[in-house]
Write a structure and sequence with these properties.
CATH topology of one domain: Alpha-Beta Plaits
GO molecular function: damaged DNA binding
Family: Belongs to the DNA polymerase type-Y family.
Structural class: alpha+beta
Largest sheet: 6 strands, antiparallel, barrel
EC number: 2.7.7.7
Number of strands: 20
Low-confidence stretches: 500-505
Catalytic activity: DNA(n) + a 2'-deoxyribonucleoside 5'-triphosphate = DNA(n+1) + diphosphate
CATH class of one domain: Alpha Beta
Mean pLDDT: 88
Helix content: 25-40%
Keywords: DNA damage
CATH architecture of one domain: 2-Layer Sandwich
Length: about 500
Amino acid sequence: MRRVICVFLPTWPTDRWRRRSGGPPPDEPLVAAAQEGPRRVLSAVDSAARRLGLRPGLALAQAQALCPGLTVIEADPEGDAAGLARLAAWCLSYAPLVAPDPPDGIWIDVAGAAHLQGGEAALLGQLRRRLGRAGIRVRVAVADTPGAAWAATRCLHPETVLPPGGQRDALPDLPLRALRLDPATVAALAQLGLTRVGHLLDQPRGPLRLRFGEEPTRRLDQALDHAPEPLAYLAPPVEHAVRLAFPEPIGAPETLARVSGRLAAMLAEGLTRHGLGARRLDLVFRRVDGLDQSVSVGTARPSRDPRHLARLLAERLPQIDPGHGLDEARLSAPRVERLEARQLAAPGEEPDPDAMAELIDRLVLRLGPGRVFRKAPVESEWPERAVRRVAPLSPATGVTWPADLPRPGRLLPVPEPVAVLAALPDAPPSAFTWRGTRRRVARADGPERIFGEWWLADDEVAATRDYYRVEDETGARYWLFRDALTKDGARWWLHGLGEAGLGEA
């Protein structure tokens, strides 16, 4: 299924000029002007100017009268287009199918590639943050079609994810300009009372085409995924790439698998000659109707094993929609690293370390990149800070946990409050209530006192926790602590579940 991101840059000309010149500050209005016949008009305005009522098309003299001291720059449409193309090329780091949408947009087809960034929502957030830090105002959306994504960036939230098929529910309530119609057509339709996309859905197609041409119905069908919309994707500047063209269109799953294996073998041969291994692969199929279908996979460590690379690609092939057939396939490795030749292990020797990397790659493909990790120790007194997630094959840091340190088998992400009954304020609990269930303590061990890390926060200078390992009457074990005395007694928390080695109470 196709999934297209629309990146909308509403103030691209002024944002680009600010990045190059360093001023004026974002809160001061900035406009770009161009000659239009005998007068000069505004061709672009920034957010501050728009808040003052300035709009593209307004005469420059009128704008200066409304806003004395207005900063005016000369419009540079050629420079803006070249800068947009460079920004689109930068977006190739996210997916292999990227196309500029002049004058202020970029398309990114992320079907089969969004998982490398943690999913579509994570990818949109990363795009907005990175471009925002660069001083570029941006709105992003992802949908099944370019038209639906374009409409969402202009008419919905700055960061919108329309689920598969969601355009059918989201588009009808949007204004007609969301269909990328020219202002004259929108105005003519409005005279007939047709102001929303849903109004066009109720109209007979014949009279609509006769009066307004093919454009309204074509844009409507493209946005709703009833008609294809090919995009002019950039050719990625990849050095390591191979290509196969087919005399007859293909589409059978087993044929796609064979083609992927052949391409992987061809690419691996070239990588071997250069002493390189692939860290990311982009596989693009061209359909006979002009639409491109792509998938991307990543590896935990450099690899040029054609069988392993082919297996990774095979996991993603079900996402390819062949339509009426595919007539070309391209496989590229946009990210590579050095990979020197290694002596193969003999029988009885240590196993090949690449086997673990291959297993991790397949688990990441099936479970997602955020779900395959290992835990690494951190030098910290407080238990929730003493561990962090790292990549599965991250090198060891030399930090270890003490072997004799009693800790639960499962640590809760956030300690949960419990009601505790204790004979004395500083005695072990004799019973506690957690999540509405009362548990009587059969055995307990402690306390283990842990002090706050005063070098991290001032409010931890006097902080202490007294931890107890307890076992209830059913044999279940818990890790409790009290952290402060109040007028109502001590506050108690449950921090962990399941541990061994309790002493007698």
